[in-house]
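In the design runs reported in the main text, the only information available to the sequence generator was the tokenized backbone. The following block is the verbatim input for one such run; it is reproduced so that readers can re-run the procedure and compare outputs position by position.
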């Protein structure tokens, strides 16, 4: 290897004696190899020991905050839920609950209107019987209601009616027929037939239901029913 002392251009051809750029005689280049230093033994940096107690304190703090939040939420919402949840009502309380309505609407006198009203009431009464809906029955039946307790069981009042009613899942459907109404002031008598479909078989009954107009609505005061021949 040769080098021009003027322009420092180097040449690899050992036979070339002059620089092609400026004609300066070339000089041999002496390369001095750097001394070899063997690699030293690698010493990894010291590993810092992780501290566990900050994690423990953090988890404990989060747990405490969560417990406090739950206690605050319970203190706020539980009283509201308690106010919204109605207390259970016994059958005796339902039967003895006084009517709160005070409607002075006179009894209707139009026969067709009363027939439609009592037909709707009969359907409500039937549904309440099948579902053993004690609240609905307490509204439909007048306090002085008297009706049959069952075949060969005599008569019963409103309270006994509601106490002994049980849900009936056998009846698939029903239909009222030949409904007729007789008006006498604030009293009405509805007669007709009702057909129940029980386990796929139809059973017909004749009935007479009596009603009174109180507090702006009809209430049942009595009932008679017998199976048709």
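Verbatim output:
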């Amino acid at each position: 290897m040769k080098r021009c002392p003027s322009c420092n251009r180097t040449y690899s051809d050992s036979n070339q004696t002059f620089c092609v750029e400026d004609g300066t005689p070339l000089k041999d280049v002496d390369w001095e190899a750097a001394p070899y230093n063997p690699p030293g033994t690698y010493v990894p940096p010291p590993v810092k020991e992780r501290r566990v107690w900050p994690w423990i304190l953090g988890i404990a703090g989060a747990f405490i905050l969560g417990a406090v939040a739950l206690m605050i939420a319970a203190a706020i919402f539980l009283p509201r839920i308690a106010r919204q949840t109605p207390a259970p009502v016994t059958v005796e309380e339902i039967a003895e609950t006084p009517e709160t309505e005070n409607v002075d609407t006179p009894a209707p006198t139009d026969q067709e209107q009363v027939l439609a009203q009592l037909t709707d009431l009969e359907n409500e009464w039937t549904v309440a019987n099948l579902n053993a809906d004690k609240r609905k029955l307490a509204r439909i039946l007048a306090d002085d209601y008297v009706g049959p307790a069952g075949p060969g069981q005599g008569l019963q009042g409103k309270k006994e009616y509601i106490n002994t009613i049980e849900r009936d899942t056998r009846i698939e459907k029903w239909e009222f027929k030949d409904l007729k109404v007789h008006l006498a002031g604030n009293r009405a008598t509805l007669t007709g037939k009702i057909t129940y479909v029980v386990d796929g078989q139809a059973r017909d009954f004749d009935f007479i239901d009596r009603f009174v107009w109180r507090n702006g609505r009809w209430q049942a005061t009595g009932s008679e029913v017998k199976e048709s021949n």
